[in-house]
Amino acid sequence: MFFKPLGRQAAKPAQAPLGAPAAAPPVEQATINVRFFTDYPVCNYKCPYCVAGHGPPEGRGPSPWDEDRYLQIIDNICKLPFPINIRIGVGGEFFISKVLVEGARRLGASENVRVLNLITNLSFHPKQYARILAGIPKEKVALVASYHPTEIKNEDAWIAAAQELGTYYDLTTMSVAYPPSLHKLPEVKAKFEAAGVDHFVQPFIGEYEGKTYPQEYTEEERAIIRQVIYSRHDWEFLLNLKRPGMCNAGFKYLFVDPEGKVFQCGGAQHLKPLGDLTQSTEITFHSGPRPCPVSVCQCDTENINTKVFEDHYAYLDKNQHRFAYRFAEEAKEAPWMDEWTVAY
């Protein structure tokens, strides 16, 4: 069913407009967040709300996934001359593919990789994950397990499996606020909390019964989501579709597409690439934060690179969706500083 870094290549400064300072490489030893979206297309679930297109009736279309190119890109990522926190994105289930796992092994063995973020639907036994990931330093691994109630036969068994997997690796779990099952979310989240398992909720993106989401959630549905959503940041960006503003994408964060092209983010693929990891490790970085080129950012791996997030939140550990409001303590004495009260 399964299922050393070479010579350091200097980052290339960006071309600056006339009269403007030239862009500099990232600060020495600053960790760069990287999202490598492979678009691996195979999944063992058929969730009706799947953003990767696996839902019935038609399923997903063709994919640019290529095994040899994937490993070539991985090898060049391992040669990047700066520390990285990388998330490997897929259009299916990561742990089905031996090749995806081999890439994860290479990243785990590389000195420049500080954190390896992976996602799964937790359809295997926790001990299988431990066997598959054996040899990768546990302190580097962070997992997000997606909870899909339309595909899961035993909710309690799934939560128990998440609880066990969390004893092996840094783990958080997530679910989608799909309209038919949205009313159950407070109960579901309470079960996760009782089991000591972190859980966050993402608004549904797509069409359901003629409505477009998240724009057409009712006030009652929004009130339920407000009870369970992880943060004000998620509320504003994932539900209210806040315009991103200034962003560290291209400065502290890089997006790599399935063909190895490097962009400042997944929403900027219409712009000139910053590099090509099938050809070399040379990457052009921005000199600092820049205005976002898109009006909406619904990717939770990317909108956390905005300046507004950086100013208001701090990571708790290596998992990319575990963070806390910076001013929670101060807000106890100054209610106007509360996470849900401040301008955001």
From TrEMBL:
PANTHER family noted in UniProt: PQQA PEPTIDE CYCLASE (PTHR11228:SF7), RADICAL SAM DOMAIN PROTEIN (PTHR11228)
Record-given protein name: Radical SAM protein
